[in-house]
Amino acid sequence: MSNTENYLVDSIRLAMENVRERKTWPFGAVLVKDGKVLARSVNEVDATCDPSAHAEMQAVRAASKAQGSTDLSGAVVYASGYPCSMCLSAMYLAGVGKVYYAYSNEDGEPYDLSAERGYVEIARPLEQREMPLVYHRARDEGQDLYEAWQAVQE
């Protein structure tokens, strides 16, 4: 078996353990950087009452803590399922270089485990989305928020 397949099987085994032992979501992820496993994680949405605690998000969080940086440039994520739009965005923000997944949206569809809905929703124009995203310009008195951020970066 190739390293890719080994890591994908590891993510599936993590997901299966989550299903069998915790009776919860069938998702696992392994994050590897420079040939070293930085994180192995499962979906912990129910356990933490945190809707963002998907396996890939948990892997990004754990790997970032393990290396003391949010820069995961060149890392590879091996996921049991197709990543949702939130997880994909987090991986982009962290600099993950590649994602492999073992189960597609089509595989998950009959079980209501497809991530496609999020991608479809985000692709819609703002005025057509189910959840309105509304810009309403507001500023506090004093220094501008973004200018303050820029000043502390220098």
From TrEMBL:
<dbReference type="GO" id="GO:0006152">
    <property type="term" value="P:purine nucleoside catabolic process"/>
</dbReference>
<dbReference type="Pfam" id="PF00383">
    <property type="entry name" value="dCMP_cyt_deam_1"/>
</dbReference>
<keyword id="KW-0862">Zinc</keyword>
<dbReference type="GO" id="GO:0008270">
    <property type="term" value="F:zinc ion binding"/>
</dbReference>
<protein>
    <submittedName>
        <fullName>Nucleoside deaminase</fullName>
    </submittedName>
</protein>
<keyword id="KW-0479">Metal-binding</keyword>
<dbReference type="InterPro" id="IPR016193">
    <property type="entry name" value="Cytidine_deaminase-like"/>
</dbReference>
<feature type="domain" description="CMP/dCMP-type deaminase">
    <location>
        <begin position="3"/>
        <end position="126"/>
    </location>
</feature>
<dbReference type="InterPro" id="IPR002125">
    <property type="entry name" value="CMP_dCMP_dom"/>
</dbReference>
<dbReference type="GO" id="GO:0047974">
    <property type="term" value="F:guanosine deaminase activity"/>
</dbReference>
<dbReference type="InterPro" id="IPR016192">
    <property type="entry name" value="APOBEC/CMP_deaminase_Zn-bd"/>
</dbReference>
